[in-house]
């Protein structure tokens, strides 16, 4: 993959270097060509050193520089399109060479339980039924009456 990235970067450098070869209007100034070639060389160096994240950043800077140079007239739109195609090839090789950095894990908030009201129903009070009294002397219905054991009628 490194070799492919280096080849794509070299192709981009060739696109930039052929500024004046065989055409009346190269579509890029010599100064812009030299500057952009330098940036391409930096991308290739970083990719060869397995510094993929830095290479991606340098490629992004190269794209921004190209936009500025197109806006200033140093690079024509047609020439910029060819350069962008070469940049896209290098970017694809960089993505394939090393996966994008893993996203930083974020804490997933746990759901907050919804408070519920506890409905408290009081238990019914037990009614006390008096227990029947049973005489201890074995006689039903006759208990001791009054003082002295004698009561009315008997």
How is this structure best described in words?
The protein is mainly alpha-helical and 154 residues long. It has a domain of 96 residues: de novo design (two linked rop proteins) (Up-down Bundle). Helices cover 50% and strands 0% of the residues. The chain is built from 4 helices and no strands.
* Distance separating the two termini: 125 Å
Helix content: 40-55%
Structural class: mainly alpha
CATH class of the domain at 2-97, named Mainly Alpha
| Main sheet record | none
Sequence stretches where pLDDT stays below 50 over 5 or more residues: none
CATH topology of the domain at 2-97: de novo design (two linked rop proteins)
Q: Tell me the series of helices and strands, N- to C-terminal.
A: HHHH
List how many beta strands DSSP finds. 0
Rg, alpha carbons: 48 Å
Q: In the CATH hierarchy, what is the architecture of the domain at 2-97 at level 2?
A: Up-down Bundle
How many helical elements?
4
Tell me the strand percentage band: under 5%
CA-based shape: rod-shaped
Estimate the mean pLDDT confidence. 76
Oligomer: single chain
Secondary structure layout plus pairing:
Blueprint: H1 2-17, H2 30-48, H3 52-72, H4 77-97
Helix pairs in contact: 1-2, 1-4, 2-3, 3-4
């Amino acid at each position: 993959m490194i070799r492919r990235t280096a080849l794509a970067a070299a192709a981009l450098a060739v696109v930039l270097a052929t500024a004046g070869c065989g055409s009346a209007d190269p579509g890029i100034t010599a100064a812009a060509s030299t500057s952009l070639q330098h940036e391409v060389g930096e991308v290739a160096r970083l990719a060869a050193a397995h510094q993929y994240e830095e290479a991606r950043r340098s490629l992004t800077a190269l794209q921004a520089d190209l936009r500025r140079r197109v806006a200033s007239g140093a690079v024509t739109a047609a020439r910029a399109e060819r350069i962008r195609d070469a940049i896209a090839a290098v970017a694809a090789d960089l993505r394939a060479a090393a996966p994008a950095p893993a996203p930083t894990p974020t804490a997933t908030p746990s759901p907050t339980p919804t408070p519920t009201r506890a409905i408290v129903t009081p238990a019914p009070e037990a009614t006390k039924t008096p227990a029947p009294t049973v005489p201890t002397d074995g006689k039903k219905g006759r208990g001791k009456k009054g003082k002295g054991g004698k009561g009315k009628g008997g």
